[in-house]
Design a protein that fits this description.
The complex is a heterodimer of chains A (356) and B (269). Chain A has 12 helices and 15 strands. Chain A has 356 residues and is an alpha/beta fold. Chain A folds into 2 domains: 219 residues, Rossmann fold, CATH 3.40.50.970; 115 residues, Rossmann fold (3-Layer(aba) Sandwich), CATH 3.40.50.920. A 7-stranded mixed sheet of chain A has the order 3-2-4-5-7-6-13, with helices on both faces. The relative contact order of chain A is 0.13. The mean pLDDT of chain A is 97. Chain B is an alpha/beta fold. Chain B has one domain: Thiamin diphosphate (ThDP)-binding fold, Pyr/PP domains (Rossmann fold), CATH 3.40.50.970. Chain B is built from 10 helices and 7 strands. Chain B has a 7-stranded mixed sheet with strand order 2-1-3-4-6-5-7, with helices on both faces. In chain B, helix 4 crosses helix 5. The C terminus of chain B is likely disordered. Classes of the chains: A alpha/beta (356), B alpha/beta (269). At the A-B interface, helix 3, helix 4 and strand 9 of A face strand 1, strand 2, helix 3 and helix 5 of B. Strand 9 of chain A pairs parallel with strand 2 of chain B.
Chain lengths: 356, 269
């Protein structure tokens, strides 16, 4: 294990991808993730990789598609408006069953919005975004170390499932610096073989990378295969974190940067003896529904507060899990505004007063 | 007995879905012949477009990748950068390349990507039912220009070779009509030179093949060939626009003065 280094999130995600075996980056500048392409443009040549600044986000994701088709572990990164442009390519990656790693350092929207951090692309990330029935593996890291760890995991899982994986960060996660440890450089020889890759036949059978199935029956069969993968992901890929939930009567549910702010908000309340806890989804898809349901099933939890930097997106998934078991309250800030620990604490205090 | 003529191994032995009189079959064959002649069949990777030629991925016997509409040059870029020893080509129609995919083809050219683009210009959207293309000629009636293409309403047809002629990074650029044996032989030479530019590491190559769409045009195959000669060729002059990777600079280019691909007929092996 190497020493701890102090690093910005946007640079750490790039280094982590390289450590995990990624040698191809195709991107396009957009704030607040510009340090990712900047880092990759100087770092990838050092490890024999390829960096291309594409003419658009559309072209970048299609370069990822081509490189992935040829067997490479490739990535792209962007922020909200740019991720919107990549949706077509993401749908094709899924349809052609190609692995890819995508980073979205979210900024406030809609439209050009703002360059300040937000979590308003949750729906886009976990419920589609592009056309067709599909899912991405979506990870919501809450620290730079977790960003590194989940990047390595996301690349590995994308390769395993032949399906794109997405890290959903935000402008804060991309811009802040924290001490971080990287895993050792992965020996590329240990990456899985890809006999399906279109590298030229080289004496073997013809390979085809394609998402077109003109006959409905064939296309449905293809969809069934995809859905089987998603069921497998739901069985094995859910990740979450719990804090102080053992005796909690009020549980806050938040992910990513917001979960950290919530922790800071709850700490003094815990010290005061309030029975408040934090449930933090780490995979946003598959959503950790069973563990949350288990927590709510104990009967001890009397209310849930969902906090997001959005007008209320993940809260819908929490409601699906909770049903009418417990009341769900939502607190959100939008358009790039970041909730302070104090305002979250006030929301919690108010809810605690109501429960008494 | 000596075999004088056969189906190239780079083409799969199967019937195509192309309409009678459509020149896609000829274009496919030329690409397949060149791939074989250059001895690169085993490392060839083709990128199929969206449009009539999407099923080219079934017809070519080499590895194939299907791309989203217009994105073939970006996909080809990814393949080539990931596997520089692969010989990569795209096969794109005019809607795919000159409308929705204009950015991708221009920038692949400007990067000097070592890929070969086969550009089928038949002045119409064939697959979707004969709608107006960026290359639809003035006055030409289509299902979405029912009164004939009018500059004030639908703008002007785009000349792709003339547009790319100025782009540094291009190493080979030619336009040839697929109207008769002599032209087909020239087209073969042009396709070969475009692939050769890739193999020699010189830069981006594109061959525009003026093609027929008898179904979309509402013509017999013979009328369609005549229409290419009489209507398309005057607006889209054939010739070699670029034969090397030198900086085209700002002045007039002379390569197309000859107005025909300079390779002599019969030079092909």
């Amino acid at each position: 294990m190497e020493d701890v280094v102090l690093m910005k999130g946007n640079e750490a995600v790039g280094e982590a991808a390289i450590r995990a075996g990624c040698r191809f980056f195709f991107g396009y500048p957009i704030t607040p993730q510009n340090e990712i392409p900047e880092y990759m443009s100087r770092r990838l040549p050092e490890v024999g990789g390829v960096y291309i600044q594409a003419e658009s986000e559309v072209a970048a994701i299609n370069m990822v598609y081509g490189a992935a088709a040829a067997g490479a572990l490739a990535m792209t990164s962007s922020s909200s408006p740019g991720i919107s442009l990549k949706q077509e390519g993401i749908s094709y990656l899924v349809g052609s069953e190609l692995p890819a790693f995508i980073v979205n350092m979210i900024r406030g929207g809609p439209g050009l919005g703002t360059i300040q951090p937000a979590q308003s692309d949750y729906f886009q990330a976990v419920k589609g975004g592009g056309h067709g029935d599909y899912r991405l593996l979506v990870y919501g890291p809450a620290s730079i170390q977790e960003l590194v760890d989940l990047t390595v995991l996301a690349l590995d899982r994308a390769n395993h499932y032949r399906n794109p994986a997405l890290v959903l960060g935000d402008g804060i996660l991309g811009q802040m610096m924290e001490p971080v440890r990287f895993p050792p450089m992965r020996d590329l020889g240990t990456l899985p073989e890809k006999p399906w890759a279109t590298t030229g036949r080289r004496g073997g059978p013809k390979r085809l990378i394609n998402s077109l199935y003109l006959q409905a029956e064939k296309c449905e069969e293809h969809n069934r295969r995809l859905q089987a993968k998603y069921r497998e992901m739901q069985r094995t890929e859910k990740r979450w974190d719990c804090l102080w939930v053992e005796n909690a009567e009020l549980v806050v549910v938040a992910y990513g940067t917001t979960a950290r702010i919530c922790r800071t908000a709850l700490e003094p309340l815990r010290a005061e003896g309030e029975a408040v806890g934090l449930f933090r989804p780490i995979t946003l898809w598959p959503f950790p529904d069973d563990p949350l349901a288990d927590l709510l099933k104990t009967g001890r939890v009397r209310a849930v507060l969902v906090v997001e930097m959005s007008a209320g997106q993940m809260v819908e998934d929490v409601r699906l899990v909770a049903g009418d078991r417990v009341p769900i309250r939502f607190y959100g800030r939008t358009g790039g505004a970041v909730p302070s620990p104090e305002e979250i604490r006030e929301q919690v205090r108010e809810l605690v007063r109501e429960l008494r | 007995m000596r075999v004088a003529f056969k189906r190239p191994d780079a083409l799969v032995d199967m019937p195509t879905h192309y309409c009678p009189g459509c020149t896609h079959g000829i274009a496919h064959r030329l690409v397949a012949e060149v791939i074989e002649e250059l001895g690169v069949f085993d490392r060839a990777v083709g990128v199929a477009p969206v449009g009539c030629a999407v099923l080219a991925y079934d017809y070519f016997a080499c590895d194939m990748v299907q791309a989203a509409h217009g994105r073939a040059p970006a996909v080809a870029t990814g393949i080539k950068r990931a596997r520089p020893d692969a010989v990569v080509f795209t096969y794109q129609g005019d809607g795919d390349l000159a409308s929705i995919g204009m950015a991708e083809v221009v920038h692949a050219a400007a990067r000097g990507e070592l890929v070969t683009v086969i550009f089928i210009n038949n002045a119409i959207y064939g697959m979707t039912g004969g709608q107006m293309a960026p290359t639809t000629l003035l006055g030409q009636q289509t299902t979405t220009s029912p009164f004939g293409r009018e500059p004030a309403r639908e703008g002007y047809p785009i000349r792709v070779c003339e547009l790319l002629e100025r782009v540094r990074g291009v190493a080979y650029l030619a336009r040839v009509p697929l109207t008769g044996p002599a032209q087909v032989a020239r087209a073969r030479t042009a396709v070969k030179r475009a692939f050769q530019a890739q193999l020699d590491g010189k830069g981006f190559g594109l061959v525009e093949l003026l093609s027929t769409c008898p179904t979309g045009w509402g013509m017999s195959p013979r009328e369609a060939l005549k229409w290419v000669e009489e209507v398309m060729v005057p607006y889209y002059p054939p010739g070699e626009f670029r034969t090397d990777a030198a900086d085209p600079g700002g002045g007039p280019l002379l390569a197309r003065v000859g107005s025909e691909v300079s390779g002599k007929h019969g030079e092909q092996a």
